[in-house]
Specification:
The complex is a heterodimer. In chain A, about 85% of the residues lie in helices and about 0% in strands. Chain A is mainly alpha-helical. In chain A, helix 4 (about 65-75) packs parallel to helix 7 and helix 6 packs across helix 9 (about 190-215). Chain A is elongated, with a radius of gyration of 18 Å. The two termini of chain A are about 25 Å apart. Chain B has eight helices and no strands. Classes of the chains: A mainly alpha, B mainly alpha. The interface between A and B is medium-sized, with 26 and 27 residues.
């Protein structure tokens, strides 16, 4: 059932190329704006690079959610899925996984390019990528809770950011701490382990919370 | 064990009437406690050796910060009770908590910032305690915003309950993540397990203030809850009687 749902989401995303390319371009454009807006000086850029890459990928993921949830809600296919006997939890699980494959993965692959342009040390690329590999799925699953709650609301987008962004703070902190520790020559294992722990915790709990939220949203 | 008290708590009518009877006494106790605590703390307690008179803001700041977290916990527990046993009163309590909690969080932030100016030389730093308190304020605001953006209150109750429970799981995580990140704020002086690191001449007024702030929370919560009950039960006969008789 999960595989079937996942296939459906992926096929839909690849048919509408704009939906999955937009967040990626957003990521590239916003990352480019920072040096223009603050300072193109390389030593300064190196300091802010991890934060800039992380904050923009976080916003890119928030931007990518609408097509996955709201469009399905509006054309009624979400209701049909619920009626089809698939559990709300598995629907959300499939959607969040698809979200990560379609938006999270390209961001991870593009992050070394951005890191190079922002003048991060080449050694820290790996840590940046590992932190994104551990952090982006966590963000997709937390976003699924927020999206499942706000999907039926007219002005859900603004509310979603208000609900979800505070919950992203720990992930953002651990990830940037890991990269900074590594570029200062210290071990980043501790922070990466915490990111992994956060990922496991969200994987275990978030789909159920999001499933319950989806049921509430679809209740009328 | 006799559970009838628990089921009676779930009846809006019983709660409305009992809360109405208790309300004046709770308010009275709150005023006595606040008066005793603040006069003792602001006038009679000794000023801090290093920080001077400005330290007296502690008697407001610490209870407010304590309450800001306790209310979030109450909000999440009542939300969970509501989700599990489908109790109307539990949902209403959870909803009634968040504006009060947000107000205490705001108070803690403002007093902390005023205290920070003379002692740290700045109103605001991105420090662990300050940041996690600010995030707590955002969580409260999100909870209120979500509740008010859903028309049907039964649906809104459940959605807000889920967010309150998700938030309470995240709260310790947020707390420790920012703790390890950056810190200027002093560690807690009060702990349940250890001997407090603060002198008893300051401890007593502080404890009185904490207890009276808790009472203050209850005395604000009760009228708030009674309002919500009246509004939600406005179709029922006992509310119509209540309103026409008074």
């Amino acid at each position: 059932m999960f595989i079937l749902l996942l296939k459906r989401e992926l096929t839909l995303s690849f048919r509408k190329k704009a939906d999955f390319l937009n967040p990626v371009f957003f990521f590239l454009v916003v990352c480019t704006l920072f040096p223009l807006g603050i300072s193109p000086e390389s030593s300064f850029l190196r300091q802010i690079a991890p934060g800039v890459i992380w904050v923009t990928s976080l916003l890119a993921i928030l931007l990518s959610l609408d097509s996955l949830y709201r469009e399905d809600f509006e054309d009624g296919s979400l209701l049909q899925l619920m009626l089809s006997g698939a559990s709300a939890t598995s629907i959300v699980f499939a959607k969040a996984t698809a979200n990560w494959l379609v938006t999270g993965l390209p961001l991870i692959l593009l992050s070394p390019l951005m890191a190079m342009m922002l003048n991060l040390e080449p050694d820290a690329y790996w840590i940046l990528m590992i932190s994104l590999v551990l952090g982006t799925p966590t963000m997709c699953f937390i976003a699924a809770i927020g999206m499942a709650i706000t999907v039926g609301l007219k002005k859900g987008g603004l509310l979603l950011t208000l609900l979800v962004l505070p919950l992203y703070i720990p992930i953002l902190l651990y990830a940037t701490m890991a990269i900074q520790a590594y570029s200062m020559g210290m071990s980043a294992n501790g922070q990466l382990a915490l990111l992994a722990a956060a990922l496991l915790l969200t994987l275990a709990l978030a789909p159920w919370a999001a499933g319950a939220a989806l049921k509430v949203s679809m209740s009328d | 064990m006799n559970w009838s008290w628990f089921f009676r708590l779930g009846s809006p009518k019983w709660f409305y009437q009992t809360a109405g009877k208790w309300q004046p006494y709770v308010w009275g106790l709150t005023f006595i406690g606040l008066a005793v605590g603040s006069i003792w703390g602001l006038v009679y307690a000794p000023a801090d050796y290093y920080q001077g008179e400005s330290q007296r803001i502690m008697y407001i700041h610490v209870p407010a910060a304590y309450l800001s977290m306790m209310i979030y916990f109450v909000m999440a527990v009542t939300a969970a009770i509501g989700m599990v046993w489908r109790m109307k009163m539990a949902f209403m309590t959870s909803i009634a908590c968040s504006p009060i909690g947000a107000a205490f969080t705001f108070l803690a932030l403002v007093t902390g910032s005023l205290w920070g100016r003379p002692t740290w030389g700045t109103y605001w730093v991105f420090d662990a305690r300050l940041t996690s308190e600010l995030i707590l304020l955002f969580l409260y605001i999100g909870h209120m915003a979500l509740f008010h953006s859903i028309e049907d209150f039964k649906k809104a109750d459940k959605a807000a309950a889920i967010i309150a429970m998700v938030g309470v799981v995240n709260l310790p995580i947020i707390h420790y993540s920012v703790e390890w990140w950056n810190s200027l704020h002093q560690p807690a002086s009060l702990s349940k397990l250890e001997k407090p690191s603060i002198d008893s001449s300051m401890l007593w007024p502080l404890l009185i203030m904490i207890v009276s702030f808790k009472l203050f929370f209850v005395s604000v919560l009760l009228p708030n809850l009674r309002n919500i009950i009246l509004w939600r039960e406005k179709e029922s006969s006992w509310v119509k009687e209540e309103v026409t008789n008074s």
